[in-house]
Design a protein that fits this description.
22 helices; single chain; mainly alpha; 3 domains
């Protein structure tokens, strides 16, 4: 009996049909094309929901033709169905928001056509079952997104952001194409499922190089340190573009790694590189984010930090948590960007607080000890109720709880009221419980489709210790920052961080960005 084609496969066809109408048909009725675009996005969402039901009813399905490196395949499994549903939902929300945001624009129909074309490419990407489809979709996303970033071509800042985006994204495409060629020809197939299965038996030398290039491509696609600057400059594009980019497209590097998780995990060097690149990007992005005053710029730096943390999760082999991170970050960031216009007004309406309790060294020490004890107690309870957790999973939980310890330190400050102390302690407990609960949910949904974390050997333990030490130092420094915030050195550091340590300026000089910005 022939299996039915995955329903989400038809979503890009619907989106591209309306996109073509919006881009090439003369629009005599300006309001018609935006309504058609929203209906197409809603139809894609309906097909994604149908894909989930199809998966539950009939099991995984792969549709493909060709063989070897030329294989063209689309898959329906727990991972692809979840991502297709996520992308379609966020896409529908963004397209619906765009109807109001761009109402009256002379090129409104053109904008909706580009949005639908970009969305179609991303929907195909998350369902890709072969390396060829992955590479083609990444190139299509880059071309469409560049057009969106240049929707206001008269703005010099928009041209500069588009130029830097094209440079970094194009470099990622080159790395991905080379990786696909090396892996497919050395392992005899371009099928993602076959590659993940074959990787368990070891990788040939050419495939090892290919996996290294995959990591490079993923780092470039996720705006990892130090080529992150383009992501902070895309605000010249319309807000729906920022929302779609930060809530969906920027996750594509993580989607690539998760899709090929079996292959990537077979290379210890690639996993170590992901931990180091991801950890450095997360710490750097979070530190710079705290110094930003503009709402959208702070959100952009937040995205950089979140993508770094997602790469760290992949490097630790916590694939289900990395996928959960993508889902949660996409939903949060789409809402954050689409509601950013009212953020300043909402802040202005908030009653200004009185003096803030400043924790001393003793309070900070007690806070971190209390947070870690609560985490250990919760981890022990979940290990007794469910199953023992891997060292990588426990290390990630400790990193998360170190962030909560900052709040606990505020509650333990001498000037803090008792109610604040109780609330911050409750926040630490809630964070620990939520972490293990969501971990169980993610494992139940995607555990059978993704590999388990590798056994912790000397390399894995070294990476775990390095990550814990790095995040611990930064968390303690953040908690103690009020004690030395007025020192001249602290003021200078804040200025340097606010400018991203000037790394983006270096990229501007290398790419001619300053000359571009003076173009009339």
């Amino acid at each position: 009996m022939t299996a039915l084609a995955p329903l989400p496969v038809f979503a890009p066809l619907l989106l591209l049909a309306v996109a073509g109408l919006s881009l090439f048909a003369p629009g005599r009725r300006p309001g018609l094309l935006p309504r058609l675009a929203e209906l197409a996005a809603l139809g894609a969402l309906g097909l994604a929901v149908g894909g989930v039901l199809q998966l539950v009813w009939g099991g995984p399905v792969t549709l493909g033709f060709g063989s070897g490196a030329a294989l063209v395949a689309i898959r329906l499994d727990a991972v692809s169905a979840s991502l297709a549903l996520l992308v379609s939902f966020v896409g529908w929300i963004v397209v619906r928001y765009s109807r109001t945001y761009l109402d009256g624009e002379a090129r409104e129909g053109h904008f909706h056509g580009l949005m639908l074309a970009t969305l179609a490419a991303v929907v195909i990407l998350v369902q890709a079952g072969s390396l060829l489809v992955v590479a083609v979709c990444f190139m299509a996303v880059g071309l469409a997104l560049r057009r969106l970033l240049l929707f206001y071509p008269e703005r010099a800042e928009a041209r500069r952001a588009a130029a830097k985006f094209s440079l970094v994204w194009g470099a990622g495409d080159v790395a991905l194409i080379l990786a696909s060629v090396l892996i497919a020809f050395s392992m005899g197939t371009g099928s993602i499922a076959a590659l993940n299965a074959a990787a368990a038996g070891g990788l040939p030398a050419a495939a090892q190089v290919g996996v290294a290039l995959l990591v490079l491509a993923a780092a470039l696609k996720t705006a990892a340190f130090p080529l992150h600057g383009w992501l902070t400059e895309v605000m010249e594009a319309p807000t729906p573009v920022s929302a779609l980019l930060h809530a969906g497209i920027i996750n594509s590097g993580g989607v690539l790694l998760i899709a090929l998780s079996g292959l990537v995990q077979a290379s210890p060097g690639a996993m170590a590189a992901l931990v180091m690149i991801g950890g450095l990007t997360a710490l750097f992005g979070a530190s710079v984010m705290l110094t930003q005053s503009a709402v959208k710029t702070a959100l952009a730096w937040s995205t950089i930090a979140q993508m770094g943390f997602m790469l760290l999760q992949c490097g630790l082999g916590l694939w289900t948590l990395a996928l959960l991170h993508i889902v949660a970050h996409s939903l949060y960031k789409a809402h954050a960007f689409l509601s950013s216009g009212g953020a300043v007004q909402q802040v202005a309406l908030v009653k200004r607080p009185g003096p803030v309790a400043v924790p001393g060294f003793a309070a900070v020490a007690k806070a971190f000890l209390l947070a870690l004890l609560l985490f250990a107690a919760v981890a022990g309870a979940f290990a007794w109720l469910a199953a023992p957790k891997s060292p990588q999973s426990l290390a990630l939980g400790v990193i998360l709880i170190l962030g909560v310890a900052y709040l606990v330190a505020q509650g333990l400050a001498d000037a803090a009221p008792r109610a604040l102390t109780l609330r911050t302690a409750a926040a630490s407990l809630t964070a620990a419980v939520a972490y293990f609960t969501f971990q169980l949910i993610a494992q139940a949904v995607w555990g059978e489709s993704l590999p388990q974390p590798p056994a912790a050997g000397p390399l894995e333990w070294a990476l775990i210790v390095l990550a814990l030490f790095s995040f611990g130092v930064v968390a303690v420094a953040q908690a103690l920052f009020p004690l030395w915030a007025h020192h001249p050195a602290a003021a200078g550091l804040r200025v340097h961080l606010a400018n991203g340590l000037y790394l983006n300026t270096v990229l501007d000089r290398l790419t001619g960005g300053f000359r571009l910005s003076r173009t009339p």
